[in-house]
């Protein structure tokens, strides 16, 4: 773990390493790990106080890189890597919360607000409204709202300027509100108050 921030100057080098990883080159994975593990560990540690969880998420992230390096297409490798790590961290935290609920709480009859919101994304009016948005607006909402990425992270992931992310997010929220209003459910949706 040599560095604590992504290296931007060598996109080509990262892309070459990822191509090597996709071919099963363990040395490429080791080099990629050395380039990115430090900053990724520091960033995960800022979002999670449990050092063991951070280590497990870091390991899971690089296992995922090993398995899915062939899916990397282009853009900032650090952004792609952070999306993987952020999703692994959310999964780990949800698993921990579920385990604690099983031990400490009786089963709840009412789903949590988060489960209701996520269920609404896939099956409810919000999911229907999201499907009606243009792909570029939907991608920005998914990156910033669902994945919880910052504007800068979303810009890196999507390969667009930060200002474009902000503009599309604002337009996407406006269009989402309008579609939900047409569906007659804007007041009862978990996202009815989007600003």
TrEMBL record:
Sequence ranges assigned to domain RNA polymerase sigma-70 region in this UniProt record: 32-98
Gene Ontology terms: biological process: DNA-templated transcription initiation
All copies of domain RNA polymerase sigma factor 70 region 4 type, residue ranges: 126-176
GO molecular function: DNA binding; sigma factor activity
Classification via SUPFAM superfamilies: Sigma2 domain of RNA polymerase sigma factors, Sigma3 and sigma4 domains of RNA polymerase sigma factors
Keywords assigned: Sigma factor, Transcription, Transcription regulation
Keyword Lipid biosynthesis appears in the UniProt entry: no
Database matches in InterPro entries: RNA_pol_sigma-70-like (IPR039425), RNA_pol_sigma-70_dom (IPR014284), RNA_pol_sigma70_r2 (IPR007627), RNA_pol_sigma70_r4_t2 (IPR013249), RNA_pol_sigma_r2 (IPR013325), RNA_pol_sigma_r3/r4-like (IPR013324), WH-like_DNA-bd_sf (IPR036388)
Stated family: Belongs to the sigma-70 factor family. ECF subfamily.
Record protein name field: RNA polymerase sigma factor
């Amino acid at each position: 773990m040599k560095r604590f921030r992504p290296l931007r100057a060598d996109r080509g080098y990262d892309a070459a390493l990822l191509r090597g990883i996709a071919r099963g080159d363990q040395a490429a994975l080791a080099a990629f790990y050395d380039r990115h593990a430090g900053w990724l560990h520091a960033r995960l540690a800022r979002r999670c106080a449990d050092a063991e969880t951070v280590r497990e998420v870091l390991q899971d992230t690089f296992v995922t890189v090993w398995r899915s390096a062939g899916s990397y297409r282009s853009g900032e490798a650090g952004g792609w890597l952070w999306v993987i790590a952020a999703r692994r961290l959310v999964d780990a935290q949800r698993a921990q919360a579920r385990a604690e609920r099983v031990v400490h709480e009786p089963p709840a009859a009412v789903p949590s607000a988060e489960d209701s919101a996520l269920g609404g994304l896939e099956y409810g009016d919000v999911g229907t409204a999201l499907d009606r948005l243009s792909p570029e607006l939907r991608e920005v909402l998914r990156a910033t709202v669902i994945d919880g990425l910052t504007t800068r992270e979303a810009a890196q992931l999507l390969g667009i300027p930060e200002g474009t992310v902000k503009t599309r997010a604002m337009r996407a929220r406006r269009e989402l509100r309008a579609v939900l209003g047409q569906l007659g459910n804007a007041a009862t949706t978990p996202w009815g108050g989007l600003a």
